[in-house]
Request: fold
Amino acid sequence: MTDSIGTYLWKGSDVKTIDEVQRYWTDNVNTTQFWQGDPRQIGSGEFFDTVASFIRKNYEHRYRLIEKQAAKFPGGSILEIGCGAGWELLHWARCGMRATGLDLSAAALELAKKNFQHNRLQAKFEHGSAEKLPFADNTFDIVASLGVLHQTESTENAVAEVLRVLKPGGEALITLYYKYSWKILLTKLGKVNFEFAHEDAPITRLYDKKNIRELFSDFRQVEVFLDYIRATTSPRKGFLAGLFNHIFVPIYNLLPTGIRKKFGHAICVVAKK
Reply:
């Protein structure tokens, strides 16, 4: 299926396949780029503690979103699509939710399981695709997917699956890349990779607020806002990374909040079934 909503970050994404996406995220499990130690120590207690500290410092906005949603469904069920190494899923579990994580990458799921063991928390894990969720209709109180659904063959199919597995009255918490975000604009201007230093994900779609309302038009109630309004430094090395970390980030974060809100990194959706 070719989606009619949204645009691609890079030319050529329209011919990429889900198998290529799976290979990419198996080779590049998200958040491993924040680890500067011995690659053989990925999955160790030191790895999890170090990355957890980085995430708490730079991505606290995600935890605020999770806490706000979890409070609406005390003790309820949550599915996270694209759980990766399990960082957000851990916080859902800490909030008292019955957590299930799904990912296209078996390598990511193995890391997530170790993360939960390290933190002495429990969750269920499933290997599968966002476009064909292995769950019955009306299963979950919350379906969350933070920065994932724009990187599958059909985001429209994935959103339809989110709606299907939500219980009536349940809510989706979804973040997708914002077409006019500061990070997208810098990526295109500097012609540098967006995800990892050596390559980008095969498929990356971008959306504006109008696109989002169309994408989630089958939901009963939709709230749309921009998040990720602070710039954070990159672990990458080199001249461009130096300019970004030491010049752009400090200057950008001095701008008034009202200006920064207009260029948030992600567009966030809270949609009720």
User: Anything to note?
Assistant: The domain at 7-272 is CATH 3.40.50.150 (Rossmann fold). Residues 239-254 form the longest helix (16 residues).
